[in-house]
Amino acid sequence: MTSLAELESAVATAPSAIVAFSGGVDSSLVAAVAARVLGDRAVAVTAVSPALATGELDGARSVAAAVGIAHRTVTTEELARAGYRRNGPDRCYHCKSELYDRLAVIAHDEGYASVYSGANVDDLGDWRPGLKAAAEHGVRHPLVESGFRKDDVRRHAAALQIPSADKPAMPCLASRIPYGTEVAPDVLARIDRAERALHALGYRDLRVRHLGEHARIELAADELPEALRSEAAALAAMEQAGYRSAELSTEPLVSGSFRGLRDLPFVATT
Fold first, then answer.
1. Closest CA to 235 of 253, 208, 205
2. Which of 102, 137, 159 is the last residue of a domain?
3. Average confidence (pLDDT) over 158-187
4. Are 208 and 235 in contact (CB under 8 A)?
5. Does 189 lie in the same domain as 149?
6. CA 7, 12, 13, 14 torsion: positive or negative?
7. Could you say which of 17, 35, 77, 155 has the lowest number of CB atoms within 10 Å?
8. What is the pLDDT of residues 191-241, one digit of tens each?
9. Domains in the chain, number
């Protein structure tokens, strides 16, 4: 059984820290503990780019205010990196390299001793090329160091009344694009419009999978039955967002399924 004291001890090993902060439950718990342990020697930094879904920055600001940590943003330019635009299986490596390059500059210029991420133990078993970028930049993962899995994170976040305790995972918009399809600003904007339209219909946990001019909607299991009964509204929302055609998947959303290793023509080992 994990304890908050273990996480506090891990965070406290640095005299000051930047928390790479998306506003999701993992980074929110790290930020909340950093605020408790380090006080004004901790800051949460959110990356802003075309791949950030509308509403996510406002959500991050609200969570930061709720947990009492200083919050700021940094503009990242992952789209300027050819490896990111190419959208191979290592896309997240290029994205996180861009982020950690920016955070390293802040840490150096302002004297922060460490950069913390919200990675947890369950992430270690997934295809996470971003962890390679973290290792190259000396980024620490307090949740991993403390043995926290996703269930532990949500349990402790709920106990601390962190607003994002039950927030669904929200990876960047580029994760909706199949490997090998170039990441471009107009594509990201179309995906964002489509997902905002579905949120406006009342759906919470969802993905719009970009398949050229076709969109595939995936919804969480508890939302799917109602969506299937009112499918026409969801499909119309996709066309209004700019897709020529759309479908509603009858299978519930499984995070990461669109680009999982089982779908690749090879299995990477690094």
1. 208
2. 159
3. 96
4. no
5. no
6. positive
7. 77
8. 999 999 999 999 999 999 999 999 999 999 999 999 999 999 999 999 999
9. 2
The yes-or-no verdict on residue 10 having pLDDT over 50 is: yes
Whole-number Å distance between alpha carbons of 89 and 259: 8
Q: What are phi and psi of 90, to 5 degrees?
A: -100, 15
From residue 138, alpha-carbon distances to 114, 141, 259 in Å are 8, 10, 27
DSSP 185-224: HHHHHHHHHHHHHHHHTT--SEEEEEETTEEEEEE-TTTH
Q: Report the alpha-carbon distance of residue 133 to residue 67 in Å, rounded.
A: 28
**Closest listed residue to residue 140, CA positions, set 174, 171, 116, 111:** 116
Lookup: tokens for 6: 């273990």
Beta-sheet strand order (sheet of 206-211): 206-211, 214-219, 245-248
Residues 68 and 138 in one domain: yes
Distance CA 201, CA 159 (A): 31
Q: Name the β-bridge partners of 115.
A: 18
CATH number at residue 246: 3.30.70
Q: In this structure, what token pair is assigned to residue 76?
A: 């990242």
Structure confidence at residue 266 (pLDDT): 28
Parent domain of 178: 173-259
12: its two tokens: 């406290």
How confident is the model at residue 128, as a pLDDT?
86
What pLDDT, on a 0 to 100 scale, did the predictor assign at position 255?
74
d(CA 30, CA 8): 9
DSSP SS3 for 83? helix
Helices 25-38 and 56-67 sit at what angle, rounded to 10 degrees? 30
Q: Helix or strand or coil: residue 130?
A: helix
Q: Please state the rounded mean pLDDT for residues 102-126.
A: 95
Average confidence (pLDDT) over 242-261? 81
